[in-house]
Amino acid sequence: MAQPLKVGLAGVGTVGSAVVQLLERGRDKLMARCGRGIEVVAISARSRSKKRGFDAGKFRWVADPVSLARDPAIDVMVEVIGGAADPAKLAVETALAAGKSVVTANKALLAAHGQRLAALAERHAVALNFEASVAGGIPIIKTLREGLNGATFTRIYGILNGTCNYILTRMEQERLSFADCLKEAQQLGYAEADPSFDIEGHDTAQKLAILASLAFGTKIDPRAVYSEGIASIAPADLNAAAELGYRVKLLGVAVKTPEGIEQRVHPTMVPKDSAIAQVMGVTNAVTIDADGIAPITLVGPGAGGEATASAIIADLADVARGVRTPPFGRPAARMTAVRKAPMQHHEGGYYIRLLARDRPGTAATIARRLAQQKISLESIVQRHDAGSRGPAQRGRSEQAVPVILITYATSEDAVHKALAAVRRDRVVYGRPQVIRIERA
Ligand SMILES: NC(=O)c1ccc[n+]([C@@H]2O[C@H](COP(=O)([O-])OP(=O)(O)OC[C@H]3O[C@@H](n4cnc5c(N)ncnc54)[C@H](OP(=O)(O)O)[C@@H]3O)[C@@H](O)[C@H]2O)c1
Predict the structure, then answer these.
(1) Going by DSSP bridges, is the β-strand pair 101-104/5-10 parallel, antiparallel, or unpaired?
(2) How would you classify the pairing of strands 226-227 and 246-257?
(3) What gap in Å lies between CA 193 and CA 163, rounded to an integer?
(4) Could you give the CA distance from residue 108 to residue 122 in angstroms, rounded to a whole number?
(5) Which numbered atom of ligand 1 lies nearest the CA of 109?
(6) Is the dihedral of CA 307, 7, 67, 124 positive or negative?
(7) Is there a catalytic annotation at residue 89?
(8) Mutation pick for ligand 1 pocket among 9, 12, 15 (CB with most ligand atoms within 8 Å)
(9) How many CB atoms within 10 Å of residue 176?
(10) I need a surface site. Which of 125, 300, 317, 350 has the fewest CB within 10 A?
(11) 43, 46, 198, 203, best to mutate for ligand 1 pocket (most atoms within 8 Å of CB)
């Protein structure tokens, strides 16, 4: 019988503890599938005395994750500490340089240093596997990197942050405000005390940068991702979306355009009957468009100890079998610089919600400004019913009428210019709400 694969586990929090438990539960099955066992031989974390969901006393304790990384008794290090900085970064570098494969769930580290770490892994002929870093339990990395090796990708888009999808789902279902749903998500443990990383779209942007790199062979560059969060979404937008046949989701979208790769994260209207629109609550989903292949959508748990540990164990199984794939699906030296398609050239349909001044000439002014930018409208809805008028217009000399416009395909630049002109004309109150529409 082959020697078991010996694992050093750096980090035994939510994910690390689940890795220990799942490896114990799946021992026989993994032995049968890989032809050898997979055993944790040493663990490392901040606090030795903290109570864990498993008997930590059974494992050798190594106080410093970097020492664990060079420990001669381990074959592979699982890094589930998190963060782009040390000790996670140094531990991963040390393990790779010592000729040990690394399995990590750390999107922040990969987004910041992925290409360099991939080169280091190649130089030492070891694996760097990171299935758990994007969309938790959904095997999206393997799907892009291996399962679709023959495909030419044109667009990847997905719901990559469960917190945001939970908030948008609750806002739609219960007609609650963003603030109320955020509070609820925090009480349920779906959102952090400081939720900004999730709700401003940065978490999705890091994950999207990794997926874009795998799909388009580019260097990972989170700075090339345009990001907008969900805090500006109001129940009025979700109601209007529902009436017009859409749902609002925070999507990460990477698409190949003639000008380069567009990478963007923003609230998005998707047709209500599309696969991605059915994904509710904390669930994640990714849709892959490739030439000549009907779209493929993977749906599943994007976080949680067990789901994430399942992805880590799949990566460990590859190492146990001796399977080694270039981390980003091609040699690191062949990852090309991102040619970033400028966001102002983005083309698509737009949802625009304006609070128009109820006086003669307003509609004509708005229509003229849109026409000047060659924007045509698919629909226009004016709500004269009292119920749709918010308290915001109280005390104003003229009534404010919510107007919802859906445009045919146009450019980001045209929409911005038209709306800036409309605001200068003083025919609307406040800042218009703009949500991009995605074909799905
Ligand atoms: N949680 C999820 O659902 C999920 C899903 C996908 C990906 N991930 C990724 O998985 C990684 C781990 O997440 P998690 O939720 O398991 O985090 P966590 O519960 O906070 O656990 C982090 C672990 O790292 C240890 N640690 C932190 N700083 C350390 C330091 N300076 N030196 C040594 N050990 C240190 C902690 O030690 P103590 O226990 O002693 O404090 C803890 O054991 C992150 O990269 C995260 O983005 C998580």
Answers:
(1) unpaired
(2) unpaired
(3) 12
(4) 20
(5) 45
(6) negative
(7) no
(8) 15
(9) 17
(10) 125
(11) 46
In 10 A of CB 439, how many CB atoms? 12
- HSE value, Cβ hemisphere, 13 Å, CA-based, for 87: 17
Give the pLDDT score at 398. 77
For the record, the structure tokens of 290 come out as 């490739």
The residue whose C-alpha atom lies closest to atom 27 belonging to ligand 1 is: 81
Residue with CA closest to ligand 1 atom 29: 46
Cβ partners under 8 Å of residue 182, min gap 6:
167, 191, 195, 199
Annotated catalytic residue, options 6, 100, 142, 207: 207
H or E element that contains 433: strand 428-437
3-class state of residue 177 by DSSP: coil
Quote the CA–CA distance of 302 and 286 in Å, as a whole number: 10
Q: Please give the structure tokens belonging to residue 345.
A: 């050239």
Which has the closest alpha carbon to 95: 114, 129, 121, 132? Answer: 121
Ligand 1, atom 41, lies closest to the CA of: 46
Residue nearest to atom 34 of ligand 1 (CA): 45
**C-alpha span between 207 and 274 (Å, rounded):** 22
Q: Which of 250, 232, 121, 237 is nearest to 179 (CA)?
A: 232
Return d(Cα 109, Cα 89) in angstroms, integer: 7
pLDDT at residue 258 in the model? 95
**CA 15 to ligand 1 centroid distance, Å:** 7
Measure the CA–CA gap between 97 and 351, rounded to whole angstroms: 51
Q: What is the reported pLDDT for 388?
A: 47
222: number of Cβ within 10 Å:
21
DSSP 343-382: GGG-EEEEEEEEEEE-STTHHHHHHHHHHHTT--EEEEEE
pLDDT of residue 394: 52
* Non-local CB neighbours of 81 within 8 Å, separated by 6+ positions: 10, 11, 65, 87, 88, 91, 106
Count of residues making up the chain: 440
Give me the pLDDT at residue 399, please. Answer: 86
As for ligand 1, residues whose beta carbon falls within 6 Å of it are 11-16, 45-47, 50, 65, 80-82, 87, 105-107, 132, 136, 303-304, 308
Pairing of strands 76-79, 246-257: unpaired
The pLDDT value given to residue 384 = 63
Place of tokens 């989903």: 285
**pLDDT of the residue at 324:** 97
Q: Residue with structure tokens 């944790």?
A: 40
Q: Which residues of the chain have pLDDT under 50?
A: 386-388, 390-393
